């Protein structure tokens, strides 16, 4: 793996072609969190209480290993491809712009950029795309991979991790344990249409409306089935622009992972879906939340749950704190036992997926005319 400030002389691998892995980024120390959060919210001021809560969460886990795992994934991918693999972070060092600048300085002229968020939200993944292309200019042709939610090897990787812990949980409990798939929530506004004439349908309600059962009790009356988010957040079919694909792609990943365990006895009625880690910014975030769903599962008589995040590729604060500390505490309070599969991290199946994405993208660059591929996946 080649860091942003390293010179190509340190490797004998040709540098004309390369791969760029893009990730969210994470601070190295608790003291860096205020500056990091400014990057996350594009410089907007956050209440001090929010900053202190994030610092508390990082302090509880020591530090987020996201950067270390991403660098290790890059090293393994470089070994598989025989090509340089760079890492750029959206919100922390090494920043995407610095890494792309280093790629150009090292003589890279064509590269495949892979966003390490398999499910594509136009708003969030769009920020990665714009940052990469802004620095690439006309000197570096990019093939941008922004959605690979149902790549077969990605599905295999999640299923491999899930099968081990689900089998163990069912054996330990003496009963079939439900699976709760999760992905990171996003603000409702990010999955709404950009067209002002045809706004998206969201769960936002009038402040004068009567409260629902969920709002009165703090939890839904039953566990949420995986089809709900499409009904809740999809834009009208007559709209000139369709809904943001994020929620649908998250559920599609879950559906395919669950299908891999059908032979092991996992049926459609044995799994559920929720969005986790809703943020503190103003406005509603998409749900249902994990907390709501845990309450609903308890009310349905379940004794435990296996929670598998399928929107994250490695350990970081949303797993090590949100799941392993916060959700575990909530589950214990409810009398539920909560299991979590090992994160993908350096999974060989994950590296196979990334290898296939990179090779396919490089082939597209090779076969596309220069004039056409210079705008391939390029933002408007």
Gist of the model:
The protein is of the alpha/beta class.
Radius of gyration: 21 Å
What is the first-to-last residue Cα distance?
31 Å
- The overall pLDDT average reads 84
Structural class of the helix and strand makeup? Answer: alpha/beta
Q: What's the main sheet like?
A: 4 strands, parallel
Shape annotation: globular
CATH fold description of the largest domain: Rossmann fold
Question: Which residue ranges are poorly predicted, with pLDDT under 50 across at least 5 consecutive positions?
Answer: 5-14, 193-222, 224-240, 371-377
Query: Tally the helices: what do you get?
Result: 14
CATH top level of the largest domain? Alpha Beta
CATH architecture of the largest domain: 3-Layer(aba) Sandwich
**Integer count of domains:** 2
The ordered string of helix (H) and strand (E) elements is: EHHHEHEHEHEHHHEHEHHEHH
Helix content: 40-55%
- What is the topology, as strand order, of the major beta sheet? 2-1-3-4
Query: What is the number of E strands?
Result: 8
Describe this structure in words.
- By secondary structure, the chain is α/β, with parallel strands linked by helices.
- The strands form two sheets. It has a four-stranded parallel β-sheet, sandwiched between helices. A four-stranded parallel β-sheet has the order 6-5-7-8, sandwiched between helices.
- It folds into two domains: 8-26 and 64-148 and 347-373, Rossmann fold (3-Layer(aba) Sandwich); 152-339, Rossmann fold (3-Layer(aba) Sandwich).
- 43% of the residues lie in helices and 12% in strands.
